[in-house]
Every structure is written in C-alpha cells, then in structure tokens.
Write a structure and sequence with these properties.
By secondary structure, this protein is of the alpha+beta class. The protein contains 14 helices and eight strands. The strands form three sheets. The protein has a four-stranded antiparallel sheet, with helices on both faces. Bound molecules: cobalamin and iron/sulfur cluster (2 copies). One iron/sulfur cluster binds near residues 155, 157, 194, 251 and 253.
C-alpha cells in the first residue's frame, strides 16, 4: 500500500478521542528525536545502569532514531495511570511490599493492547501508515518522548510528572511514519526549591541533575538485580519486596492523583497473604499467584531474597524452610538476617 500523505494534525482529534476511549488519560506526540540522548550517554558513562547492560544497545538508536526506523517521523505517546493508593491490608501483607505499578495485571500487555487499538484506528484514518509500538522495552527514553510531547516535566526524582495526574502512570509509545505538524507546548519544570523526594530516598539513589543511580535504587535491587544485595543497602529496603514508590509518595504533585485503570487494581490474593508466604512457596504456586503480573520479572528466588531482607518478623519455622534454598542471593540474605536480627 502507498505511504500515507496525511499529517498528524489532520487526524489528531480522532486519535485523541480513540486513545481516551481505549483507556489512556493523556495523549501527545513528538517528532521522532530524543533531545536528551547525550544525558543517557552520560548516565551510562557513570555506570548508573548497574546490571542492566542491555540498555547500552539503545544508545545508537537514541542518538539517531532513523538508523533503526528510516520511515519514522513522529511518536504518539499515551499516559495510562495505575492506582495511587496502596491498600491497607493487614500488617506485613504482600500488598504492602509490592510497588503500586505491580499490584494488578502486567502493564506491558494492557498498554500494548491500547496501542494496538490505536494502530487499528490509524489504518482507517491514514491507510498505509507504518508504525511500531512498544511499552517500556523499546530503545528510546519514554520520559524524554513524553516531555517532548508536552505531557509533563522531568522531576528531581527522574519521573515524568503531569501537573494533574502526578507521576503514577505508565507511558506507551507508538513510532509512526506520519509527519509531525502539531503545536506542542512543553511543560517547564515545576519542582522549584522542593527536595522532598531526594530527602526521602532511603538509599541516596537520587543524584543531582535528575539522575538515579540504579546501583543504589531499591527498585533496581529488588526487581532487576540477581544474587546477593550489598548488606549496607539491604538494610535500607524500607519494607519493599518488589519495586519502590518512596520518591513518588514524597512528591506533592501526587497528592491528587486520579484513580488508576481497572486492570491495575490490587489483586485480592495480595491483601490477606503475608509477605513471609513467599519463603515457603513452590515454583508452581509462585507462577500461579503472579501469573500475568510484572512481579514475575524478579523470579521466585529474587522475591524470597527480598522478603527475607524486608519482612519485619519471620516465624522460625518459615525461615528454617528457606534454609534449604541454594540461590546465592537467598543464602546471603539469610546470613545477613541471622547476623543482624539476633
Ligand atoms: C531502566 C529503567 C529503570 C531503572 C533506572 C531508572 C532511571 N531513573 O533511570 C530502574 C530499575 C531503577 C527503574 C525504576 C523505576 N521505574 Co523504570 N524504567 C527504565 C526504562 C526501561 C529506561 C529508563 C532509562 O533509560 N534510564 C536512563 C535515564 C538517564 O533516562 P530517563 O530516565 O528516561 O531520563 C531521560 C529524561 O529524564 C531526559 N530529560 C532530562 N531532563 C529533561 C528535560 C526535558 C525538557 C526533556 C524533554 C527530557 C529531559 O533525559 C534522560 C535521558 O534521555 C524506562 C522505559 C523506557 N524505555 O524509557 C522505565 C520507566 C522510566 N520506569 C518507570 C517506572 C514506573 C519505574 C518505577 C516507578 C517502578 C517502581 N515503582 O519501582 C521506578 C522509579 C525509579 C526512579 N525514580 O526513576 C516508567 C516511568 C513513568 C513515569 N511517570 O516517569 C517507565 C517510563 C516505564 C514505562 N514505559 O512506563 N526503571
Ligand atoms: S525508587 Fe526508591 S530507592 Fe529508587 S530513587 Fe526512588 S526512593 Fe530512591
Ligand atoms: S518531590 Fe519535589 S523535587 Fe521531587 S519530583 Fe516532586 S516536586 Fe520535584
């Protein structure tokens, strides 16, 4: 089919309406360029990606998007909020240890489905349009694209913040072959003199210049990091078993965050169940409890390690069961707990 000659502005109101109908709360677009690719290069130079070395492969594409998408002209960006409240389950409940974004279904699938819907609409509005959708795992900085699309500013905690939504949302992205001819007003910084997120971070992971050092970030340590966690940081997980919301909880712009999309509501299986159940769960039980959930990313061994380090009280019989695990991270966590909580 011939390439479409339609530009974004000609169909923008239809795209906006469709994105909102599909479940997004904001939609914007930017030309296909990452204005801050050199900041990403500087972040990598400092080793802030920790074990996520695969991110290095993105640098070439962030610097020159056309090298990977020669047909690409614009990026449509959608924001999809998740629940801003963590349910008050019983003390020590699993729901209290899992970050807000992972309380319900895996966002990758949910947001991708919305982007798929937008692609179907594009095929009607501008036949022949090429597109490439991704959620989280693409080669670009979703926050940069969102800021360029006028959807928020980058806070000192590195989050993309919308003045009305706050920062509890996912970003979905659709690279398209449509020329960008929209007027975009970028939102300028609204952090001002505030430093609440920097002061609240338990591990000092928020650096000047809106960078986060993943090596110190609880989100990285509990989700992405395999093996033993540095004892000095392990002592500061602040009850987090999967991910961390502390620098968002501290942010005044999250005080009036809207309700999240229903797919991200807390699963009932997380509220009544203690975090310590993780220590005695078989792989099959783990897979069932976290089916279609982002928590699977940390794997069973990672979640047991995290629970040993983060839980307040663990019954002796339960901790005894974990003694038979051979994973390096679990073994180190047990040794640390024994040496510090006697
Ligand atoms: C790697 C990664 C992580 C790492 C590193 C995080 C980091 N701060 O760099 C770890 C594992 C620690 C992590 C944690 C979390 N993550 Co994460 N993560 C990513 C991922 C895959 C890449 C981010 C990256 O490249 N980091 C390197 C830094 C240098 O790049 P950057 O953060 O994008 O920042 C750019 C902008 O700040 C820009 N910039 C700076 N100033 C300005 C000014 C203007 C005007 C503009 C235009 C741009 C700009 O320059 C930077 C470089 O391009 C993105 C998905 C994606 N593909 O983008 C999700 C993503 C950033 N994560 C997300 C989420 C939800 C989280 C957590 C909240 C999860 C949790 N609850 O535990 C935490 C938050 C921690 C924090 N304060 O950042 C969301 C963020 C949504 C939002 N509102 O911002 C994303 C976008 C995933 C998604 N598609 O929804 N994450
Ligand atoms: S997610 Fe937690 S550890 Fe990471 S920067 Fe924010 S407050 Fe610090
Ligand atoms: S807590 Fe304050 S400094 Fe941090 S992101 Fe929010 S407004 Fe900005």
């Amino acid at each position: 089919m011939a390439q479409s000659t339609v530009t974004l502005s000609a169909i923008w109101s239809d795209i906006e309406r469709e994105a909102l109908r599909l479940g997004a709360m904001r939609v914007g677009a930017t030309p296909l360029i990452d204005q801050h690719a050199e900041r990403f290069a500087a972040w990598l130079d400092e080793g802030h990606e920790a074990g996520m070395t695969y991110l290095r492969r993105n640098l070439g594409t962030r610097r020159n998007p056309l090298s990977r998408f020669p047909w690409g002209r614009s990026v449509v960006v959608i924001l999809v909020p998740y629940g801003p409240e963590r349910p008050h389950g019983a003390a020590g409940a699993l729901s209290g240890g899992i970050a807000r974004y992972a309380q319900g279904d895996d966002y990758h699938g949910v947001v991708e489905e919305m982007l798929r819907g937008l692609e179907a609409k594009l095929a009607v509005l501008a036949p022949g349009t090429r597109s490439w959708r991704y959620v989280d795992t693409g080669p670009f900085s979703d926050r940069s694209l969102g800021a360029q699309a006028g959807l928020g500013w980058i806070g000192k905690n590195a989050m993309l913040i919308d003045p009305e939504l706050g920062s509890y949302f996912f970003i979905g992205t659709l690279v398209t072959s449509l020329d960008h001819d929209l007027d975009v007003t970028e939102i300028t910084d609204r952090c001002g003199e505030c430093t609440r997120c920097v002061d609240a971070c338990p591990t000092g992971a928020i650096l000047p210049d809106r960078f986060v050092d993943s090596r110190r970030c609880i989100s990285y340590l509990t989700i992405e990091h395999r093996g033993a966690i540095d004892p000095a940081l392990a002592a500061r997980l602040a009850g987090n078993v999967f991910g961390c919301d502390i620098c968002q909880e501290a942010c005044p712009w999250n005080a009036h965050a809207p309700e999240g999309h229903s797919a991200f509501q807390t699963r009932s299986g997380y509220t009544g169940r203690p975090v310590t159940d993780l220590l005695t769960m078989s792989q099959a039980e783990f897979s069932t409890l976290f089916s279609r959930s982002a928590v699977k990313r940390a794997k069973r061994a990672g979640m047991i390690r995290n629970a040993i380090l983060a839980a307040e009280d663990i019954p002796a019989a339960v901790i005894g069961r974990a003694g038979s695990e051979t994973d390096e991270g679990i073994v180190a966590a047990l040794a640390l707990r024994r040496s510090t909580r006697r």
